[in-house]
TrEMBL record:
Its main location: secreted. It holds the Pfam family LBP_BPI_CETP_C. It comes from Fregetta grallaria (White-bellied storm-petrel). This is Bactericidal permeability-increasing protein. The gene is Bpifc_0. Keywords: Antibiotic, Antimicrobial, Disulfide bond, Glycoprotein, Immunity, Innate immunity, Secreted, Signal. It is found in: Secreted. It comes from the Eukaryota. One of its GO terms (biological process) is innate immune response.
Length: 183
């Protein structure tokens, strides 16, 4: 897929060839790049509703998305550092945090730019719903003040738990998504 993850999309069984269609049963397991150890999930069987009004049907199981989440978590893809340049663009500084958290205001009288380190602390959980899917992410955010000599001073760390819903739709032959923060 990329430098962080690889996919095994081999056949689970021989193709079933029928007069009007071919049924290919592919397994789709995503692994961290170069590490083919099994993910901590068990694949549950599922069926696709029998319809014959389209030329092609693709089905992705919850297991496929869980293995993706596992592979990218293992590879560290959910660890992000937002540099001071980006924070400066959005005008995020110790002054902003000082107005919310009094301890930061006491520590940092002079406004300094900040740097944010975001990281997932557990494997994100992806669940398929009727018309959308949800992603539950547990993580932490550490906020650093960037001092004039370019060193950083940790200001605070907070734990984050987010639950989002993502719905996919097709508009004008384009796949579009909408994201909703549930909590």
């Amino acid at each position: 897929i990329d430098d962080l993850a690889e996919i095994d999309y081999s056949l689970n069984s021989l193709p079933a060839v029928f007069r009007p269609f071919i049924d290919l049963d592919l397994k789709g397991i995503v692994y961290p790049a170069g590490n083919y150890s099994g993910p901590p999930y068990v694949a549950a069987p599922f069926t696709i509703p029998d319809q014959s009004d389209s030329m092609l049907y693709l089905a992705f199981s919850e297991y496929f998305f869980q293995t993706c989440s596992f592979a990218y978590y293992t590879a560290g893809a959910f660890n992000i550092t937002i540099a001071e340049e980006t924070c400066s663009y959005f005008n995020i500084s110790t002054e902003i945090f000082g107005s919310i958290i009094p301890e930061v205001a006491k520590y940092s009288v002079t406004p300094y730019p900040v740097m944010l380190k975001l990281m997932a602390t557990e494997i994100p959980i992806i669940s398929l719903e009727q018309d959308s899917f949800t992603a539950e992410i547990q993580g932490s955010m550490e906020v650093f003040a960037v001092l004039p000599d370019s060193t950083t001073q940790s200001l605070f760390t907070m734990n984050i738990a987010a639950n989002t819903s993502i719905a996919l739709n097709i508009f004008d032959q384009k796949l579009m998504g909408s994201l909703c923060l549930n909590r």
